[in-house]
TrEMBL record, chain A:
This is Dipeptide transport system permease protein DppB. It is a multi-pass membrane protein. InterPro entries: BPD_transp_1_N (IPR045621), MetI-like (IPR000515), MetI-like_sf (IPR035906). The lineage of its organism: Bacteria, Pseudomonadati, Pseudomonadota, Alphaproteobacteria, Rhodobacterales. CDD domains: TM_PBP2.
TrEMBL record, chain B:
It is found in: Periplasm. This is Putative D,D-dipeptide-binding periplasmic protein DdpA. One of its GO terms (molecular function) is peptide transmembrane transporter activity. Residues 79-443 form the Solute-binding protein family domain. Keywords: Signal. Residues 1-26 form the signal peptide. GO terms for biological process: peptide transport. Gene3D superfamilies: Dipeptide-binding Protein, Domain 1, Dipeptide-binding Protein, Domain 3, Periplasmic binding protein-like II. Its main location: periplasm. InterPro entries: Peptide/Ni-bd (IPR030678), SBP_5 (IPR039424), SBP_5_dom (IPR000914). The lineage of its organism: Bacteria, Pseudomonadati, Pseudomonadota, Alphaproteobacteria, Rhodobacterales. The keyword Heme does not apply.
Length: 352, 532
């Protein structure tokens, strides 16, 4: 009894370190979210009106061949059993083989994801660099011509079909002016020249010091990245404007101005500083959306990214690929959320 | 200028400089390189024993040789010697002995021998993948291949279970599954007794005009010419097939000269590209047929006059000249044009009065039926046209649009009143379509012959089944052709199939590309004969 009491005392005296507790909670929440995501995706994949067996055997196959493949895929087993088999494989890093191109799904994702990552990163970068200042100016000069332009730019960005805008961009800048490279990541002459390290051609060519390939890759990525950047810009600039307006009407701003602080300091050091946390959320969401893969952009620009990969897999009933792709996209969302939370703590003293 | 304006301006200028300093596109591809834009997302495997899709067949045709093959410069001539230099047929018509050509080598450097041919054909039978029926229909099975497919010296003998028309057997050997693989290389990559299947899905071991450099799914296929090819080194040393999904993107690439051939232009882009300088368009008939079929379990649709009436209720000309323009041509027989025994007869025209007469004779006055269509634009548009025509004779047709799983499952279980869809031949012999449209030895539900279109529509073929059986054993080529023409004549009049259109493929290419062929209806694209 005495020993038990002592043990309890001991436990009370040595609680979990805060960092360990936070880490465990984060890992736990990732695990639960991923499990939920996997389960929902798996169930949706199984109840959707597409037939992976038909995709493999073709519509002319006999009933016996159909049945054989049906059993090979484990589709004759109860759904929950199928799910646990799948979960077991995923935990071991195995997303299964793509039913349609006979390669491990993890290998496919490692091939297509860097293409999307490269495009999305450039796109969101353009969106931030242009969108944030545009939003700030629009708020500071509310009602001025620049605010009106920002409004029109954002409105066009929201409302213009990306398919049409992409094709027009290609027609003008590639077809007529010849300023940029055409659809695809590289001209055929440069394909497979630089060794693949990250799968991101700009980075790989820079690491290799091959600036000719870099320039060519840049000429191909600039248009789709600008297009995605434009859509990010539209969102980021409107949100920045709205956040800034809220801050600029606050009393502490009036106080700062009354104290004789320069307008620059008022805007940057006071108002802008206070919208950083909100902006991080907007930018993280924008980035996550781009990382999901913009299917239409990828189709128009023949960009072999994760968006078109998942879409093709879905249309071809390649459920292993769909599940694998969805899990990766889900993981990206979760990781970006965690990253945003960390940044909040850096920028917002209250979070600490 | 304040800080914000400076930042904005510099960002805009930076972007503009970056854009304008990028190099302009190249004017044309190198003279020894062929660059093709095509949709290649249907490639699932490169193993010839398993490959059964269009883009995969294109790769296979260039990488693997077969015993006999089609000459892309003269497709009408039919099969020609390739790995087999010659062949003899036994008197009983069941044994064919092929003599293997000397001096052929695989890309690995290994010689092509009779043992490789024996291995390749046996392997295709033993693996029993989807296209294996093309060979097993001759009676080959995993149990008997050691007796029925045998190499001896430089000859290979195959023994079929009954005498078949030699043209039937040899036509089947030109299919992708007839590709000869390098036994030593394949067996060196065997895993768990899979006869190298896993390895060959993504690698190749052939002796054709090209060897595979890379296949990146949904991205590209790159081929390098085989300088030791027995017909001589191909002029195009490298062939790159790029996956470009969108028609407009293909057209821009072609007009800029970044590709030589665009294979998937829609009618608007074909019209636009053909008027551009330096571009020509070639049309080739393909094997795909568009048809509607009437379920013979339906008490009214099974009446002969109703079957006939439907054939007069299709606005063939109207559709061909509007939304199908350039993509499909009118065709009313189950053998595609360019096939052995194909018929050009097209007796049915859009004739509402005639259809009304026939329906009156059948005592039909008002009818409501359901048509199942897969969600593809052209099929839905055809169904809508048919719906309008049928409405004029008092038939209400409800269109059910669904995925392949939804529609095909109901079609295969004989549940749909009417099915509207497409059918493509599996191998370049008339039996491929005769054996499904006009062949149904057991029409009972229990037969579950879901692979036969006649069975799916519960049609007992009105006596055509034995005629189809007879045609596959007729050794006289002209007599065989006449038999298929006769079968199709009867089929046109009595069958519940309303065959409407045959597909046309339009390839747009740079003016300097010559001899390119997608293989018409009977085979796939080959590149060794192409020059620029």
């Amino acid at each position: 009894m005495a020993l038990t009491e002592e043990n309890r005392e001991g436990r009370r005296r040595a609680p979990l370190a805060p960092w360990l507790k936070t880490t465990l909670m984060t890992v736990g929440s990732i695990a639960v979210t991923m499990l939920g995501l996997l389960f929902v995706t798996f169930v949706i994949g199984r109840v959707m009106p597409i037939d992976p067996v038909l995709a493999i055997v073709g519509e002319r196959a006999s009933q016996s061949t159909y049945q054989e493949v049906y059993e090979q895929l484990g589709l004759d087993k109860p759904l929950i059993v199928q799910f646990f088999y799948y979960l077991w494989d995923v935990i071991h890093g195995d997303f299964g083989m793509s039913l349609l191109n006979a390669r491990p799904v993890s290998e496919d994702i490692a091939r297509v994801f860097p293409a999307t990552l490269e495009l999305a990163t450039l796109g969101v970068f353009a969106g931030i660099v242009l969108g944030v200042p545009l939003g700030v100016i629009a708020a500071v000069r509310r009602g001025s011509w620049i605010d009106q332009i920002a409004r029109v730019v954002a409105l066009v960005g929201y409302s213009m079909p990306i398919f049409w805008l992409g094709l027009m961009g290609l027609l003008v800048f590639y077809g007529i002016l010849g300023w940029v490279g055409g659809p695809g990541r590289l001209d055929i002459f440069y394909v497979d020249i630089v060794p693949q390290r990250t799968g991101m051609i700009l980075l790989d060519s820079a690491l290799d010091g091959n600036w000719e390939v870099f320039r060519n890759a840049f000429s191909h990525i600039v248009l789709p990245a600008s297009l995605l950047g434009y859509y990010s810009l539209a969102y980021i600039s409107r949100m920045t404007r709205s956040f800034m307006l809220e801050q600029l009407s606050a009393e502490y701003i009036t106080t700062a101005r009354v104290k004789g602080m320069s307008e620059r300091a008022v805007i940057w050091r006071h108002a802008f500083r206070n919208i950083r946390v909100q902006l991080i959320t907007v930018i993280a969401l924008s980035y996550a959306n781009l990382l999901e893969g913009s299917v239409l952009t990828e189709i128009i620009f023949s960009w072999p990214g994760i968006g078109s990969y998942i879409t093709t897999a879905l249309l071809s009933a390649d459920m292993n690929a769909v599940l694998g792709g969805t899990v990766v996209v889900g993981l990206i969302f979760i990781l970006l959320n965690i990253f945003s939370d960390l940044l909040y703590k850096v920028f917002d003293p209250r979070s600490k | 200028m304040n800080a914000f304006n400076r930042l904005l301006t510099s960002a805009a200028i930076g972007l503009a400089v970056a854009v304008t300093s990028a190099p302009a596109g190249f004017a044309e591809t190198p003279a020894n390189m062929l660059v093709i834009a095509n949709r290649i997302d249907d490639i699932t495997t490169l193993d010839p024993a398993e490959s059964f899709e269009f883009a995969g067949s294109d790769v296979s045709r260039n990488v693997y040789q077969k015993l006999v093959n089609f000459d892309p410069n003269d497709l009408d001539a039919g099969y020609q010697p390739e790995v087999a230099e010659s062949w003899d047929v036994s008197d009983d018509g069941k044994t064919i002995t092929f003599t293997i050509r000397d001096g052929l080598t695989f890309h690995s450097g290994n010689p092509v021998t009779a043992a490789d041919v024996e291995y390749s054909l046996r392997r295709a039978v033993i693996l029993n993948k989807t296209p294996s029926f093309i060979l097993t229909q001759f009676g080959f099975s995993a149990e008997n291949v050691e007796q029925t497919i045998v190499a001896d010296g430089n000859t290979v003998t195959i023994v079929t279970d009954q005498p078949y028309a030699t043209s039937f057997v040899l036509n089947c050997l030109t299919a992708t599954i007839g590709g000869i693989v390098d036994m030593k290389t394949v067996m060196a990559n065997e895993v768990d007794g899979d006869m190298g299947n896993t390895w060959l899905k993504t690698n190749t071991a052939g002796s054709g005009a090209y060897k595979l450099v890379s296949w990146k799914p949904n991205d590209s296929v790159t081929l390098q010419s085989n300088p030791g090819y027995y017909r001589g080194a191909p002029a195009m040393e490298r062939v790159i097939v790029r996956h470009v999904q969108e028609s407009a993107s293909q057209r821009l690439l072609l007009e800029r000269g970044d590709i030589d051939i665009a294979r998937n232009l829609n009618p608007e882009d074909v019209a636009g590209a053909s008027s551009a300088e330096g571009i020509k368009v070639i049309d080739e008939l393909k094997g795909r047929l568009m048809y509607a079929s009437l379920n013979q379990k339906h008490p009214i649709l099974s009446k002969p006059e109703v079957r006939q009436a439907f054939k007069y209720l299709v606005d063939y000309e109207g559709m061909q000249n509007s939304f199908l323009k350039g993509q499909y041509t009118i065709h009313q027989n189950f053998l595609p044009k360019t096939y052995l025994g194909a018929s050009n007869e097209a007796p049915f025209t859009y004739d509402v009065a005639k259809a009304k007469e026939l329906l009156a004779a059948a005592g039909v006055d008002g009818l409501e039926i359901e048509v199942g269509v897969r969600e593809a634009q052209e099929r839905i548009e055809i169904a809508q046209s048919l719906q309008n025509s049928l409405a004029q004779v008092g038939i209400k047709m409800n269109i059910t649009v669904g995925t392949a799983k939804q529609i095909l499952a109901r079609y295969r279980s004989r549940e749909l009143d009417v099915y509207l869809g497409a059918w493509g031949p599996d191998y370049p012999d008339p039996q491929t379509n005769a054996g499904t449209f006009a062949y149904n030895p057991d029409n009972s539900d229990a037969a579950q012959a879901t692979g036969l279109l006649a069975w799916r529509n519960a049609w007992d073929t009105d006596g055509l089944t034995p005629l189809v059986d007879a045609a596959v054993t007729e050794n006289d080529r002209d007599a065989r052709i006449q038999m298929y023409k006769d079968i199709q004549a009867k089929f046109r009049e009595t069958s519940p199939f309303v065959i409407m259109f045959q597909q046309i493929e339009q390839s747009a290419m740079r003016d300097n590309v010559t001899n390119f062929s997608t293989g018409q209806a009977i085979t796939s694209a080959s590149y060794w004969q192409v020059t620029k």
